[in-house]
Amino acid sequence: MNKRKERQKKGYLGHRSHGRGNVKNRRGSGNRGGRGMAGVDKHKWSWATANITGCYFGKWGFVRPNKKTVDVVNLFYINQKALANQLEKKGGKYHFDFKGKILGTGSVTVPLTIRAIAWSKSVEKKLSSAGGQISKLEAGTSAS
Questions:
Q1: What is the largest CA-CA distance in the chain?
Q2: For the chain, how far is it from start to end, CA to CA, in angstroms?
Q3: Looking at the chain, which terminus has fewer C-beta neighbours within 10 angstroms, N or C?
Q4: What topology does CATH give the domain 72-136?
């Protein structure tokens, strides 16, 4: 014969405090260290570091409304694209247009014609030694 299912709530029946000690214990918000988020930067700090995510603590920061960001690309990347035949070739030179700044990291092994908004001084030297050139790209002109 099957055993009858036991009653679920059988613990602490007939015990006034349910294992919590004196009747006065666990009474009020002092039992939990304050109401709500009280004490998260003091006595509840270890709980806070484990359970609070986001920007509750610390600086929220201020975003500069007129901060300028410029896209950059290195000569190394352009040279790799030219060697992989991913750039258009006109008159024996590879052409690359970029709405940003060209930086001079890397070497140039093929003649390149680059149009960009800005570039560093080392770019001019490296391009001229490889038989290439760089020119200003106007803001309204389309670039790849």
A1: 98
A2: 81
A3: N
A4: Ribosomal Protein L15; Chain: K; domain 2 (3.100.10)
- Distance, in Å, from the CA atom of 73 to the CA atom of 103, rounded to the nearest integer, reads 6
Separation CA 119–CA 137 (nearest Å) = 11
Residue 106's nearest CA partner among 137, 134, 81 is: 81
Antiparallel, parallel or unpaired: β 112-119 and 88-90 = unpaired
What pTM was estimated for this model as a whole? 0.54
- What are the pLDDT tens digits along the chain (144 aa)? 788 888 777 888 888 888 889 988 888 898 889 999 999 999 999 999 999 888 888 887 888 999 888 999 999 999 999 999 999 999 899 999 999 999 999 999 999 999 999 999 999 999 999 999 999 988 666 665
Q: From CA 36, how far away is CA 21, in angstroms rounded?
A: 24
113's tokens: 């014609």
Residue 79, Cβ density class (10 Å: 0-12 exposed, 13-18 middle, ≥19 buried): buried
What's the rounded Cα separation, in Å, for the pair 96 and 112?
8
